[in-house]
Specification:
By secondary structure, the chain is mainly alpha-helical. Helices cover 77% and strands 0% of the residues. The protein is globular.
């Protein structure tokens, strides 16, 4: 009887270990599949391929708290320069084409080309009556002006710089450290789930707040649940403060959730009045 019980316990332990290993493997596979799908969507030209390849090479070879925002800014500047060069080249080409057209109405030719590119007729180029009024209607206005938007962006930048400079000096104050880590992650993440998972791994597993097994288990669970992958921050925040009790674990989930979502919401609010202008 004792031998049978021992065998049954060993079989149960083996089944649990295999289930744990399979969940971890599935989580890694899901992240790899999501990263591949994201790359197919964003790498649509040789410039984007070059930017992605250089950024990936630098991120693999170097590790620093300031590296992610610098890479994002450098990639944005490179893409902007390439887009500007493409627009200027296209304008020169169209100007040369217009000069070659003799005896034709240049404005009419441009209107026809634009209608063909948009897949519509010339009538679609005409602006409907009342459009200008609707654009300036009170319903489309933001509740604050562009000065407030700039102020929000300045506060966002100051908090980012401050947290990046201080997050390694407050590891003993776990709640503050959790909020600071997730705020910085929310500021530097662009790209969704395939990006947030490896970044959070370096933010919560490397400091020792979570072990790799619990992290990969959370990745598998978040993939099976509805909602954005950024909700994974609540799971990580809860486990980071779980050693202090159930109450701190709930507070950690709220800190992680607010920390990772507030930077994006702040940037959205800051950009709305400027975009409307």
């Amino acid at each position: 009887a004792a031998l049978a019980a021992s065998c049954s316990l060993s079989a149960a332990a083996l089944a649990a270990a295999l289930a744990d290993a399979s969940i971890s493997a599935a989580a890694v596979g899901l992240v790899a599949q999501a990263g591949t799908a994201l790359s197919r969507k964003i790498v649509v030209s040789h410039p984007t391929l070059a930017v992605c390849a250089l950024a990936a090479a630098v991120a693999v070879l170097y590790s620093a708290p300031w590296l992610e925002p610098v890479l994002i800014a450098a990639g944005g500047v490179a893409s902007l320069c390439w887009s500007y060069w493409a627009v200027v080249s296209e304008r020169k080409r169209k100007k040369k084409t217009d000069e070659d057209v003799e005896g034709a109405d240049v404005e009419e030719v441009r209107a026809v080309e634009m209608s063909q590119e948009l897949g519509g007729s010339d009538e679609k180029l005409l602006k409907p009556e009342g459009t200008a009024a609707s654009e300036t209607s009170p319903e489309g206005q933001t509740p604050f002006g562009w000065r407030t938007g700039i102020s929000i962006f300045v506060v966002w930048t100051i908090l980012l710089i401050t947290f990046m400079a201080l997050k390694k000096t407050v590891p003993d104050i776990r709640p503050l450290a959790v909020f600071m880590q997730f705020y910085v992650a929310g500021c530097v993440i662009f790209g969704g789930g395939p990006v947030v998972i490896p970044l959070l791994y370096s933010y919560v597993v490397i400091p020792g707040w979570l072990n790799p097994r619990d992290f990969l288990l959370g990745v598998a669970l978040i993939q099976a649940m509805p909602g954005p992958n950024f909700n994974f921050a609540a799971y990580c925040g809860a486990l980071a403060l779980s050693p202090y009790g159930a109450g701190p674990a709930i507070a950690g989930a709220l800190l992680g959730y607010v920390g990772i979502f507030s930077p994006g919401l702040a940037l959205n609010a800051a950009a709305l009045p400027l975009w409307q202008r």
